[in-house]
Every structure is written in C-alpha cells, then in structure tokens.
Amino acid sequence: MKFSGVIVVVFLAITIPVCAAEIPREPLDTLWEMHMLAGTNGAYYDGVPSLPTAPPPHASFESANGNPDNAWPTTKGIRIDDFKETRLWGLLRKGGWRMEGGLLAHAIQGSLTIELYGKSVWKTRPSLFHFGIAPPRSAEHSYEFFLLRRPREGMRAVMLKKWTIPPDQIPYNYYLRGTLQYDAAKRIATVKVTDVDDKRVFLQEPVDLSDIVGR
Fold first, then answer.
1. How far apart are the first and last CA of the chain?
2. Is 28 helix (H, G, I), strand (E, B) or coil?
3. Cys staple from 102: which of 71, 115, 130, 212, with CB 3.0 to 4.6 Å?
4. Whether 76 contacts 41, CB under 8 Å
C-alpha cells in the first residue's frame, strides 16, 4: 500500500502543473484603459466577457457617487477579474487581479467634456481558504484616477493626467471617492480624492486646462 501511494503521488506530481503562472498586470490595464478612452462599459472574468449583475447594469454613473468600487456596473463602468493564478498543485488558488471602476464625474464645456475616471485595483495572492466574494485581508489595494478630455460624446478621449494612490497609503477597508470641480471662467479642473466614510483627503490638485479648452 505504501508503494502504491508513492506511485500516486509521483503520478500527480507529473500530471498536475505545480502552479499557474503569475498573471501579468499590463494586458489587463491596457484592456481597462481601452474601454475608458472609448467611453464604453465592459466586464470580464478570467478573460471571458461577462455581464454585471447588481446594481442594474444600465444605471447612470452618478449612482456610484464617485466611488470606483461602485462604478463598474454602470453604463460607463469597467470591471476585469482574472484569478487563474495557483500554487502548490492547485492547493492555493484564486491569485490574480481585480480592476473595477469607471466614469465618476464630468464637466461639459460646449461640445467638449472633461471627465474623471477612477479605478480600484486589487492584487491577491493564491490562498488556501476563500470566504465570500471580497478580496482577502492580505490583498494589496490601490487606486488610479484619470482626467480625460473627450471632444464629444462617442469619440475617443485623450488622457490629460493620471494619479496613483499606492497600497501603502490606503489602510485596510478604506474605500476612496473622487470628485471633479470645474471652473469654466478660469478653465481649471480640480480633482479631489477622499475616503468614503471619514473624508480623509488623499489627493487635491487643480489642473490648468486653458491651453486645451476652447481650442
């Protein structure tokens, strides 16, 4: 019996891959930003297009109240999950990335639209136990915010500026919210990022658009 057990172990070691390779982030970022610049929504799970469930997938972006984690099911929302990474012959599973967000705010100047997009990024490592659908406490959580200029609705946008809030600046269970204030007279867009609950300010920056708006 001991001998047969060794054979089984050797057989499994040969036939089952030790791990699924670490999932590279760059292609997922590229796909996410492709939807952002096009102004379209999209949802993917492990590389396969899927449909958002709740809240209603046709809700306006305003329903997210500036929170990227709530923006993905809207008409301008984007979510990409890829958790195919494994370790130890599949014993440790569901490592990978979650990127969710979408349009948070906009300001209209004639036919031109200034837009603020936000992206919540989770990096998870393969683990033995999985509870619920939320990323585990060990996951790294960061945010990205993008200021865009869109010539008119339906046209491809141009990225004006990008901000990153890294994991070491975000306490566990903090969720951020982005707002956009636009001064049409001065042509200055001010982006502000705060915590959803305690209103702690993570970012506040005015961006001069006088060379862009009104051309």
1. 81
2. helix
3. 71
4. yes
Query: Side chain identity at 24, as an amino acid letter?
Result: P
DSSP string computed for 101-117: EEEEEEEEETTEEEEEE
pLDDT at 16: 45
CA distance 45 to 34: 17
Total length of the chain: 215
Q: Please tell me the distance from the alpha carbon of residue 154 to that of residue 32, in angstroms, as a whole number.
A: 17
Closest CA to 35 of 142, 156, 116: 156
Residue type, 42: G
Q: Which amino acid is at 46?
A: D
| Mean pLDDT on 156-179 | 94
- Give the separation between CA 158 and CA 150, rounded to whole angstroms: 6
Q: Beta-carbon neighbour count of residue 117 at 10 Å?
A: 30
Q: Does the structure show a pLDDT above 60 at 90? A: no
C-alpha dihedral sign at 195, 199, 205, 207: positive
CA distance 156 to 55: 27
For the chain, domain boundaries: 20-208
The strand pairing partners of 95, in sequence order, are: 85
Report residue 91's pLDDT band, with 50, 70 and 90 as the boundaries. low
Q: How far apart are CA 25 and CA 121, in angstroms?
A: 10
